[in-house]
Amino acid sequence: RKSFYVVGAAGIGGLPFVLATGGPTLAAIYAVPLLGYWYQGLKDINQRSSAVLHNFPILGHIRYFLESIGPEIRQYFVELDSEATPFSREQRAMAYARSKLQRDTLPFGTRRDVYQEGYEWVNHSVFPTHVLKENERVIIGGNDCKKPYSSSRYNISGMSYGALSKNAVIALNKAALMGNFSHNTGEGGISPPHK
After folding, report:
1. H or E element at residue 149
2. d(Cα 68, Cα 36) in Å, to the nearest integer?
3. Strand, helix or coil at 27?
4. Cβ(11)–Cβ(35) below 8 Å
5. 160 and 107 Cβ atoms separated by less than 8 Å
């Protein structure tokens, strides 16, 4: 914040010089961005939703601007969202979204190369092995959990149900009920066919 006050004070200090050399019209033109600078800076300092803006008024906006064009710069010059160590940009973005109680999911599939060597997924088996009854479910929550619950190992994941018909959603929901497993309703929430 010190740099904000230093720059702002220098701006105010320059106002008499501009007035003396350029006259009242130029001084008025000079004063408008100066007032905007002070207004936005003090607004940044007094808000509590962003630590970056609170600690770095005005400069924080430059950081957010550069971050907003970051995907384009990375797309053409640097790296993929899934690259980097110890955490990828994709993982950091998810952590930031969760910390702000924002949605951290990306609809319409994945950005990953599912054909890349080493990519893992679950596939249907033509000749499945027998699974013991006690291995079909898992207990979620340990001794410190107030409400541990039994969950199936296989469930219906979230998808864009707007792309499915009402009958398809009802069929998936009935299958989940018959199989005693969970049905993620996706980002749209619970629609009438899910009930």
Report:
1. strand 149-152
2. 22
3. helix
4. no
5. yes
Non-local (6+) Cβ contacts of 22 within 8 A are: 30
Q: What angle do CA 166, 114, 172 make, to 5 degrees?
A: 20
What are the CA-CA distances from residue 174 to residues 14, 151, 177, 183 (Å)?
73, 17, 5, 10
pTM of the model: 0.38
How much is the CA Rg of the chain, to the nearest whole Å? Answer: 28
Q: Evaluate the CA torsion angle 120, 124, 127, 130 in order and state its sign.
A: positive
* pLDDT tens per residue across all 195 residues of the chain: 788 888 888 888 888 888 888 888 888 888 888 888 888 888 988 888 888 888 888 888 888 888 888 877 775 677 666 666 677 777 778 888 888 888 777 665 666 777 888 888 777 888 888 878 878 888 888 888 999 888 888 888 776 656 777 888 888 888 888 888 888 877 666 777 666
**pLDDT score, position 80:** 63
Task: Count how many residues are written for the chain.
Answer: 195
Asked if 158 contacts 188 with a C-beta cutoff of 8 angstroms, the reply is no
Residues paired with residue 151 on neighbouring β-strands, in sequence order:
138
CB-side neighbour CA atoms (13 Å) of 125: 6
Contact by Cβ (8 Å): 11, 34: yes
Using CA atoms, how far apart are residues 105 and 132, in angstroms rounded to an integer? 33
